[in-house]
User: Fold YbhB/YbcL family Raf kinase inhibitor-like protein from Thermosulfurimonas dismutans.
Amino acid sequence: MRLWSPEIPDGGKIPRKYVMPAAGGENISPPLRWEGVPAGTRSLVLICVDTHPVARNWMHWVVINIPPSVQELPEGASGRAMPPGAQELINSYGFKGYGGPQPPPGTGAHPYHFILYALDVEKLPISDRPAFKEVERAVAGHLLDKASFVGYYER
Assistant:
């Protein structure tokens, strides 16, 4: 399975329009595409997590129950154009949907991991505001495949 963004190169910088307004952006969710979803997949889970030590696995986006037939999320999909059945959960900022990067100034480049999980269950039982470890525990027994890429942002 492969996950990528046509706007964020793997290992590259996240464009400003995808970051939070307090960091100079527009908080638009980036376009994401994937391929190679394994046979038997009943749902997909997408997350974006900042693993920088200062951020402590800050959850920027959690989407569960994405139908396996879906192969992309267009730019700005969060809160407006999500696939039927997909459910956006509460991020670490405290609101549903995508919350872009907003690293504290002077803390260096933060890594934002976009991770897609292919699962053998149609609906993932998980809290409305899951921590990264909770997502990992919830998908562990149902994981068929996983794909990811990393974008960086600093102020």
Notes: The first helix runs from residue 132 to 140. Residues 2-153 form a domain with the Phosphatidylethanolamine-binding Protein fold (CATH 3.90.280.10). The beta strands are 2-4, 32-35, 43-50, 58-66, 72-73, 87-88, 110-119, 143-153.
